[in-house]
Design brief:
Elements: H1 15-30
Length: 48
């Protein structure tokens, strides 16, 4: 079974926000939740 989660940030993404989200994803992976992909719209305001 697959679940699709869509996320909309209410404030501008910074490196700190992105790092916190990646840390949360790593923790969820340890708990058995698999993330198959992350979609980041072009207009998200954060440049990698």
């Amino acid at each position: 079974m697959y679940f699709i989660g869509l996320v909309k940030f209410t404030k501008k993404q910074t490196k700190d926000v992105v790092a916190a989200n990646l840390k949360r994803i790593e923790q969820e992976t340890k708990e058995g939740i698999k993330v198959h992909g992350i979609y980041r719209p072009v207009s998200s305001g954060y440049k990698t």
